[in-house]
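Hi all, long-time lurker, first post. I run a small reading group and we've been trying to get comfortable going from sequence to structure in the token notation. Rather than ask abstract questions, I figured I'd post a concrete chain and ask someone more experienced to write out its structure so we can walk through it together at our next meeting. Sequence below, copied exactly:
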Amino acid sequence: MGRPATTILALAAAVVVSSAHIGSPDAWYDGPAGPYTVLVHVQAPAVVPGIAIVNVKPADSGIERVTAFVNRFDATGGAPPPDVAAPVPDSPGWYRTRLWVMTAGSNSVTVGVTGAKGIGTVVVPLTAVAGRRLTFDTPLAALLVTAAVVLALGLVTIAGAAVRESVLPPDGEVDAPRRRRAKLAMARVAVVLAIAVVGTGAWWRAEDRGFQRNLFRPMTISARVDSSSLDFAITDSTWVRRHDVRWLRERRLPQRGDLIEDHGKLVHLFVVAADGRRAFAHLHPTTRDSVTFAAAFPPLPGGKYTVFADIVQTSGFTQTMTTTVDVPADSTGRAAPSTIDPDDSWGVGHPMEDGRRITLDDGTAVTWLRDESPLVENTEARLRFSVSPPAGDTASLEPYLGMVGHAVVVRDDAKVFIHLHPLGTISVAAQARLTSPADTTREPHAAHSAQAVKPAHDTSTATGDTLYFPYAFPQPGNYTVWVQFKRAGRILTGSFPAVVTPAAQ
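-- Answer (accepted) --
Happy to help. Here is the structure in token form:
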């Protein structure tokens, strides 16, 4: 699908905040919008309320109009009127609009496309959260303080002059009583200004504390590996006590929604070697209480690992929780447990051939289809891979967890992590939650909410032996791209190192 986008994506927001996906707040979608195929990139706002930038590139010709609007997952008052996305002059084929996101949490961006094939729509889930507090630039703060002092002194001076001279005859002289009244008026105005400044400062500090208190923080988890299993628990008190309404009310905390399955699993657990590239596992633990989970642990090399746990809640809110775990050295000699989930998979890093090609254990060759140009932050990453079976093997790709392939992008310091599909960064479960079956032949407007369009379903069959994952690296650094697919009934895992350079200033 689609050609690489470069210029438009280089305009991504310079401030990257923490998000439900670690260090990767933007939403990507590549798939159907009714009769059309579209690539959508939603640049999440740095703070909420804030502005999201919606970029849309239809793959079809004859496009007449592209619109978008944003709505909260539980909105009941109808959707806002859509904004018309304008063509981007320096990026042919792309359309862009800016939308206000007023509420933090699970939101939906509904994209409408009108053209020769009629009208098509699609819902793109957007998890909008603020992960840090923005501060004033020091020179700007100094300028504003100086201006405020000058204005305050001017106001005090004007008050004194008004009392002292406003009713004085043209040829009159200011006497001592008038001077005393003027000084008293100036003192009163100064006291009023001081009270206003102190009161406003106290209000602002209270608002700032409240903002910091409500900053998004992923739920805390713990994990440990024993001789045959990995056990982890969601230890965050807001989750453990999510049904204790009184406890939540006393602490002014919202009640968290329960977990829903994404690709048929409640949790997608990724265990990645501390350096990001030595070893990797994609597990699906089971649970009885949605607090403690367990998964059979595969034979990975011993050492320290980072654990990433992806979940989706009933609101469509997605988040990645993380912790670290030590794997004992003897795990490599242990056979894979017979109780392991058939969809669990793991692998170790493979040496690169010709800089773009790796050969997996069964002889399958995977090639990263990219040119010689460097990878640049906030520019479409060109994550396209071809899969070539060994000589004499004609098996094609098969669906794996409902998709033709999966990919995980992790920076070596674990400060960026994202789980990708051919549909993009979005959760299919979240999209389904934010969408309900309805007529998709009409353009969305105020009378049609975000729930009035059909979701993009999981891929049921694989087409071809090429995998594409829409994405842009959000920060420079050293990354590993772990690519997973299924062929001949076997889940295969390969890894590709990637060096991402800073965008030109």
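A couple of things your group might point at:
Residues 1-19, 437-463 have pLDDT under 50 and may be disordered.
The CA atoms of residues 111 and 269 lie 31 Å apart.
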